[in-house]
Amino acid sequence: MSYARQILDTYPRTLDADDNLLAVAIDAISDCAQACQADTDADLSEQNLAEMVRCIRLCLDCTDICAAAGAVLSRLAEYDPAVTRPLLESCIAICHSCGEECERHAAHMEHCRICAEACRRCEQACRDLLETLK
Hints:
Blueprint: H1 3-10, H2 19-44, H3 53-73, H4 81-105, H5 110-132
Helix pairs in contact: 1-2, 2-3, 2-5, 3-4, 4-5
């Protein structure tokens, strides 16, 4: 059981979101941020660094957006859809872009394949949660 799920199980208030989808999204966001951060480091070690500039930039953006979304989603005591919805939409957008770019390198760079997979999972988890928010 994930830490997000465990914490949500102890939450003293009723959540305005499906707690299962919320836990899955928080875990996927956290995993994606970590994968993108690690992929950035691996990209910087590649021989042809010039080919990796777009991937590095997208991974850095994805790390930052996922970190912000994960932090806000983890503090739902005062849920504000005007904040949460755009964060999830941003997370979906950057995960899509980053996942596409990492996919371009996945055939010859295992770290990019893993990052693309994390981005796809995060994109879907955020979509699923966004669809249920009031």
